[in-house]
């Protein structure tokens, strides 16, 4: 099972088995792939708000994997995770400015509003992580992207806020991977 899909399924089952989890509740999920001798483990901190966005592209897995790497570079996403064997590329959580890809960060993530009704994404410090996996599906590929964002009040010692993705960054990555015609 693809790593990102497994993490999402575990997150959903965690929410289902314990009832609706409070917004922002985080659960560590470890997903292993491979056999007993050659296994790899990834640990994801997942929340009920996290979702993997899958997009099928008409490319072989190898071609889509190469295109995914080019997409990250083209979009200016820092690559800090690269696993060619499982076709996983991503960036570890890093501070995001208030703009991403020339647009306001609020176009990509929603963190709610603060007590003054200001959008949190514009006033808090936002940490963003992006992970993409390319999964072979017959002669095509599925590009699965997970965007995770958390916002921290830079002034007060309030708990971090979990943000939800608008799906736009995932769509931009998928569009960069898909062949232009």
Question: Short summary of the structure?
Answer:
The chain is α+β, with helices and mostly antiparallel strands and 181 residues long. It has four helices and eleven strands.
Query: Which structural class do you get from the secondary structure elements?
Result: alpha+beta
CATH architecture: 2-Layer Sandwich
Uncertain regions spanning at least 5 consecutive residues: 6-24, 26-34
Order of helices and strands, N to C?
HEEEHEEEEEHEEEH
Question: What is the fold-level CATH name, i.e. the topology?
Answer: Alpha-D-Glucose-1,6-Bisphosphate, Chain A, domain 4
CATH class: Alpha Beta
Largest sheet: 7 strands, antiparallel
Total domain count: 1
> Distance between the terminal alpha carbons, to the nearest Å?
31 Å
**Overall geometry:** elongated
Number of strands: 11
- Give the helix level as a range of percent: 10-25%
Helix count from the secondary structure assignment: 4
Radius of gyration: 17 Å
Beta content: 35-45%
Average pLDDT rating: 79
């Amino acid at each position: 099972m693809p790593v990102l899909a497994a993490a999402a399924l575990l997150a959903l089952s965690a929410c289902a088995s314990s009832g609706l989890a409070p917004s922002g509740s985080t659960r560590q999920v470890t997903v292993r792939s491979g056999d007993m001798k050659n296994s790899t483990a990834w640990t994801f901190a997942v929340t009920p708000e996290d979702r993997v966005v899958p997009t099928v592209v008409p490319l072989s897995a190898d071609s889509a994997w190469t295109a995914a790497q080019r997409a990250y570079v083209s979009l200016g996403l820092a690559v800090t995770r690269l696993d060619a064997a499982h076709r996983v590329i991503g960036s570890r959580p890093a501070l995001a400015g208030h703009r991403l890809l020339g647009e306001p960060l609020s176009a990509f993530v929603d963190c709610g509003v603060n007590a003054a009704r200001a959008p949190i994404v514009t006033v808090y410090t936002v940490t963003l992580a992006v992970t993409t996996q390319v999964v072979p599906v017959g002669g095509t590929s599925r590009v699965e992207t997970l965007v995770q964002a958390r916002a921290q009040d830079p002034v007060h010692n309030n708990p971090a806020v979990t943000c939800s993705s608008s799906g736009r960054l995932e769509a931009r990555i998928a569009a960069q991977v898909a062949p232009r015609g």
